[in-house]
Amino acid sequence: MNEDAAPTAESAVPPITEALRAEARAHPGGWVYAIDPGFDGAAGVPPQAVVGAWRSDARGELSGSFVPNPRYVATPRARGWSLPGSELEDTLQLTTSGYASEEQLHRAFASAEVVIYSRPEGGIFLAPAQDHGELVYAFTTSAKASASGWSHLVTIGGATLASSLPVGVRIALDPGSTPSGILDPERVVRP
After folding, report:
1. What CATH number has the domain bearing residue 158?
2. Whole-model pTM above 0.90?
3. What is the Cα–Cα distance from 55 to 164, expressed in whole angstroms?
4. Which of 14, 35, 127, 185 is deepest in the core (most CB within 10 A)?
5. Coil, strand, or helix at residue 124?
6. Confidence (pLDDT) at 104
7. Is 151 part of any domain?
8. Contact 154, 115 (CB under 8 A)
9. Per-residue pLDDT tens digits for 66-110
């Protein structure tokens, strides 16, 4: 998966909002936690979604400096990525940001409909890879595929695509977008 720059515990102190001040008043002498915006309103928040915390003094006011969580992992929303246009794109975002496994991404790809480039005379368009292999470009939404200007697009099941590829051809998922990734067709067919 491609790793893109994302907010980290060291990069930014969240703004102090009235809701955080109210939380401090409700818990004098405790801690007030800044939660990643991807978990707004969530019942359960995993430890890696806690951006960090401030201390609440005995009067219920924020005191001291912000203490960043070194295990914080920014969600797609915190990274500023667009809302996903499909379940597969959602899984790609979650995988790239560390909230889903590559196995989940391969399973999601297998069960999804993807849009690929085809050749004008028919067949799948293959592109050279930087490592001298070949790639098939697959997109999570038709809008992403159309954005390139390529006019020959075909919708196909992810498992069908993966099982039809010649040995050594990998799948470039949402190439040119953030996030994007490279999938091994063998892991799609046999997760």
Report:
1. 3.40.1350.90
2. no
3. 57
4. 185
5. strand
6. 96
7. yes
8. yes
9. 999 999 999 999 999 999 999 999 999 999 999 999 999 999 999
Both 126 and 64 in a single domain?
no
In sequence order, the 6+-apart residues with CB closer than 8 A to the CB of 154 are: 115, 116, 117, 118
- Calpha distance 55→65 (Å, rounded): 8
Q: Which two tokens stand for residue 4?
A: 């893109």
Give CA angle at 20 (15, 24), nearest 5°.
135
Domain with 170, as residue range(s), is: 81-189
Range list of β-strands (E), the chain? 31-35, 50-56, 62-68, 113-117, 126-128, 134-139, 153-157, 169-173, 181-183
Angle (CA) 168 181 185, round 5°: 35
Other beta carbons within 10 angstroms of residue 122's beta carbon come to 8
Residue in the structure block whose two tokens are 């500023």:
80
Strand partners, 34: 52
Residues 6+ apart with CB under 8 A from 16: 54, 62
Amino acid identity, position 173: L
